[in-house]
Design brief:
The complex is a heterodimer of chains A (248) and B (324). Chain A has 248 residues and is an all-alpha fold. Chain A has ten helices and no strands. In chain A, helix 2 runs parallel beside helix 5, helix 3 runs parallel beside helix 6 and helix 5 packs antiparallel against helix 10. Chain A starts with a helix and ends with a helix. By secondary structure, chain B is of the alpha/beta class. Chain B has two domains: 234 residues, 3-Layer(aba) Sandwich (Rossmann fold), CATH 3.40.50.300; 81 residues, Alpha-Beta Plaits (2-Layer Sandwich). In chain B, strands 5-6-7-3-8-9 form a six-stranded mixed β-sheet, sandwiched between helices. In chain B, strands 11-12-10-13 form a four-stranded antiparallel β-sheet, with helices on one face. In chain B, strands 2-1-4 form a three-stranded antiparallel β-sheet, with helices on one face. In chain B, a hairpin with a 2-residue loop joins strand 1 and strand 2. In chain B, helix 5 crosses helix 6. Chain B is globular and about 70 Å long. The chains are: A mainly alpha (248), B alpha/beta (324). At the A-B interface, helix 1 and helix 4 of A face helix 3 and helix 4 of B.
Chain lengths: 248, 324
Amino acid sequence: MNAFIALYNLFLKHQLTKGRIVLIFVLSAIAVGLAFLISTQSNPGLEQFDNGAGFTLAFGTNLMVPLISLVLASATLGQLVEDETLVYLWLRPNSRIILAASAWLASATVIIPACAIPITLASGIASGDWTLGIYSLFAVCLGCFAYSAVFILLGLLTKKSVIWGLLYIFIWEIIITTAIGAGIGALSKLSIVYYVRSIIGEYIGKESPEFEEFVSTTSLPTSVIVLILISAIGVGLTSLRLSKMEVA
Amino acid sequence: MSNYNPTSNIQQQAAWPPQDATIVCYNVSKAFGQLVAVSNLSVAFRPGVTGLLGPNGAGKSTLIRLICGLAQPNIGQVWVAGGNPRESSSVRSRVGVVPQQDGVFERATARQVVELSAALNKVPNIKQAAENALAAVELDPNIKRPVGAFSKGMRQRVKIAQALVYDPPVIILDEPLNGLDPKQRKHMIELFAQLGEQGRTVVVSSHVLEEVERFGSHIVVLSKGRLAAEGDYKDIRSKMDSQPRRIRISCENAPKVAGALIGTETVQSCGLTGPDQIEVTSTDLQKFRHNIASICKTENSMLTEITPLDDDLESVFKYLVDGV
């Protein structure tokens, strides 16, 4: 058995706990439930599309993707530090990048379906436009990869990774860069959610005047490249942290 | 550091480290904030079993972490099996470690934990190696329960099996007998001895004096982060035993027994501390234990309890510590 596969299997096995499964189901149920509500309360056509797209951005990309990524990814290596089992992996003669990359991929393996399925469904149901669902699926997958890489690193850096992660999501990603930064182009580009929203914006900006601000922002290839780069840098820094840290 | 030659740095001490030393710590210090866990320690370990002895907080676990590369010394150098354990992956593949902490991967089975260790160490026949390692610690490889549901003793055996599965020439065990019952302890001690006889360097830490006696003849004693003693167990033990020790005896007719004890060869001082209690200071604890039974019998006194009052390592090593 290859070391990467062995580590990947171990991380995957430890990803889902009862609490995390409940969180995923609750958020998924809220997403799909609200999507039904929006579809029934909106007039078919542009109004429904606008409401559905707005809901996808606000609930799906701003909230659900970072929250689920935080809870699962920060625990992937963070839990091992806490219960002092990291020692069993750290002492092995394997490269740190294999350890970091397998942890990241195992997290993403769980996070992507947990986010992508309900958000894609909710997006399609709420807007009545399944092309938006496809764009959401693509954006959410890349967003999950990027957030997972960042939050795996956070789990190694601090024992209070969930608290710091929540502060990061709500204060930096939502309030500063998205709400305040909307009027300041450069500031808004300093968040992950900006690039996730830009991928969806590539479609909705052309379909509705309400979202035409997205047309002049970052292009689809740029958003994709930035999200891949964030993922790679996150995994690289996790590997570096593993090399330098002292293990209990 | 990977080219570190321990002998070049300490030429002034021709006999140290021994030529066959597989682990060398030279002038190593490690502090955590204000707490100095290991201070200016130079120690070498050779093939065979070495007992690493010291009371809780003596710095044993920190020294083990430094040897394994889990922590970086603030000062000094650590050299294990040909290199720096913190930087060299080939060194890590040659060292098997049983950490002190209780946790193992809670959701995995014993077989999965051991197979993971084998896979990460690139063992050719993983399944067979895992079965052999589990058999060595007397664990059934087919137990379906996850390790999280195991007793402490069973978890301890899984930890030992994951360290043995890739056949490392250096094995470091931090308090490996914790949680094991007497039969398992006996088996493990025999296993460590067998590993030592095979030419491996086996370092076993413990804070229990009697336990270390059974590991082997060579011991390293740490106290307050420093080397308190090193050498043959019997020599060190006899030095320890020559220190006066206090014992409380509970028996009937205590005044008569106390009277009979005064002046006996092994009793330095003796006094009544209660109606049925005597406190004795003895210069030879083992001999005293033999004598007291016959004295009580002679005095028609029923002996109910013998309690060593300073038999903990802290007290036993006091004279060593004072000399550090």
